[in-house]
Amino acid sequence: MSMLERAECQLAEIELLTSMFPTQEELEITDQLALAELRDYVEGSASTDSPPPPSTPQFFIKQKLDTASTERMDVILSCAYPSEYPSVLPEITVRCAGLSRAQQTQIHTDLNSYLMENCQGEVCVLSAVDWVKDNLQLFINNSLSAAQAPKKESSSPRPQEMFSRLWIYSHHIYNKTKRKNILEWSKELGLSGFSMPGKPGIVCVEGPHSACEEFWSRVKVLTWKKIMIRHREDIPLDRQVEDSRAVESIDSLRKFTGFEEAMFDPHGNRGNHMDLGQLYQFLNEKGCCDVFQMYFGIEGR
């Protein structure tokens, strides 16, 4: 499928969604400029191999779904098209107040598996909406069962608290939705560190071990060309300290203050390459320049 044919599929699907969900309460296109550029590309392109616009459409589909209870449940599907869609799956995140974070992660994983098995190479946002409608009640039931189950008292010792720092490598990080999720999730989970978009993409998060693992569980299920934990640091905390002192101990181990998206003199045709010398200096200032060689196989300077 050529780049132009992929763009035609994207535009046709958006026009179909617009006709099916005509109000902004049902369908909200968050990047109208990207949609206009896509339409101009499809309607005015003279070559099937001319490059597509750098930005791709992003939108929310908002549904009120019936559940076993008397209340209707608000469900939002956040959708973003990779430039290769529909040759690759779209980025779809399901948000529902009736589900825990773990349940939302699971429904995202199961939805991706369904789309990969049944819709690979085809437009599939409507299939995703239908799947969520058909399966949401099951996840709500599981969530309610977990909440209502009696909690068993355990005589086993409390697991040892641990401070973790994850160094994550991605082939690239361009997508605005992914970049927004990384920033929002790190803030929500109380993690510090940084993310460097572009090619390659780098993310470092540090904080309580459980929060780092939750962050990684959310990030890794998004659609990536390649993503992995390149290096991790796990430091046990004193089992005997009180909770307030454990927080102080975690904060003393942090090398970053807060979480930020770091840019280092973007360059290249698409502005997607960073100055690795500046990255090395940044890491050196934070006392973690040793990871530069782990990422790139060379010593920084």
- Give the CATH H-level superfamily of the largest domain: Ubiquitin Conjugating Enzyme
Could you state the order of secondary-structure elements as H and E? HEHEEEHHEHEEHEHEHH
**Oligomeric state of the chains present here:** single chain
Helix content: 40-55%
Q: Got a strand count?
A: 9
What is the CATH topology descriptor of the largest domain? Ubiquitin Conjugating Enzyme
Average pLDDT level: 83
Total of DSSP H or I helical runs spanning 4+ residues:
9
What's the architecture of the largest domain, going by CATH? Roll
The dominant shape is globular
Rg from Cα: 22 Å
Low-confidence stretches: none
Q: How many domain regions?
A: 2
Structural class: alpha+beta
End-to-end span in angstroms? 44 Å
CATH class of the largest domain: Alpha Beta
Briefly characterize the structure:
The chain is of the alpha+beta class and 301 residues long.
3D architecture notes:
The model has no long low-confidence stretch (mean pLDDT 83). The chain has helices at 3-20, 32-44, 101-118, 125-148, 176-188, 209-220, 243-253, 276-285, 290-296; strands spanning 27-29, 58-66, 72-80, 91-96, 162-170, 192-196, 201-208, 227-236, 259-261. Helix content is 42%, strand content 21%. The strands form two sheets. A five-stranded mixed sheet has the order 8-5-7-6-9, with helices on both faces. A four-stranded antiparallel sheet has the order 1-2-3-4. Helix 1 packs across helix 2 (32-44). The protein has nine helices and nine strands. The longest helix has 24 residues, at 125-148. The protein has two domains: 3-144, Ubiquitin Conjugating Enzyme (Roll), CATH 3.10.110.10; 162-236 and 250-296, Alpha-Beta Plaits. The chain is globular and about 55 Å long. The two termini are 44 Å apart. The chain is an alpha+beta fold and 301 residues long.
